[in-house]
């Protein structure tokens, strides 16, 4: 479904997973990679417990300008949702020093698929993932993130599964969302 040209709405199944992951596991510090126009940002923010904080990274300035409006119109101030306008590989290494983060409870990856693996490894290196941190990565089967999937299979750092679905807006194309639970270094 498309509203106003480029504000895409994620479909219900995906939204349900987001709501489940956000609500059921009560994350306190959340990172979103790829806000686009803020739809998933607002869906996640709505599912967070009081006092939780969501950092959303979007590198495209035009998308970010729309996302900022959507997030604020939805009623979230920047104590709850902070939109960071820069590429993820520049922001992730600064999350500790510039944003005082100590741990990420939940990470939603929905940016360019080629960034999934390097960004996951950067998150591991940052020390911000703790035992039980959840990473949800969208569209891992189509367009697909094969290197990312190969890595999580081999690394031994995660318990993981794929939630299978069809691609949003295209019923025939099979897709999936990977859910990873960080187990830490054994
Ligand atoms: C599929 S859209 C995100 C959709 C959004 N999560 C939603 O469901 O409403 C991908 C977005 O990620 C942004 N993006 C891609 N690679 C990025 C990166 N490395 N760092 C920050 N933003 C990135 C793009 O500019 C684009 O707006």
TrEMBL record:
A GO molecular function term, named singly, is: catechol O-methyltransferase activity
Q: What is its EC number?
A: 2.1.1.6
- What sort of enzyme, by top EC class, is this? transferase
Q: Which GO terms describe its biological process?
A: catecholamine catabolic process; developmental process; dopamine metabolic process; methylation; sensory perception of sound
Reactions it catalyzes: a catechol + S-adenosyl-L-methionine = a guaiacol + S-adenosyl-L-homocysteine + H(+)
The parts of the chain that form a coiled coil are none
Ordered alphabetically, the record's keywords are: Catecholamine metabolism, Endoplasmic reticulum, Hearing, Methyltransferase, Neurotransmitter degradation, S-adenosyl-L-methionine, Transferase
Say where the protein is mainly found. Answer: endoplasmic reticulum
Which Pfam families does this one have?
Answer: Methyltransf_3
Q: Where in the cell is it found?
A: Endoplasmic reticulum
Output a single Gene Ontology CC term carried by this record.
endoplasmic reticulum
Which residue windows are transmembrane per the record?
none
Q: Which family does it belong to?
A: Belongs to the class I-like SAM-binding methyltransferase superfamily. Cation-dependent O-methyltransferase family.
- This protein is called what? catechol O-methyltransferase
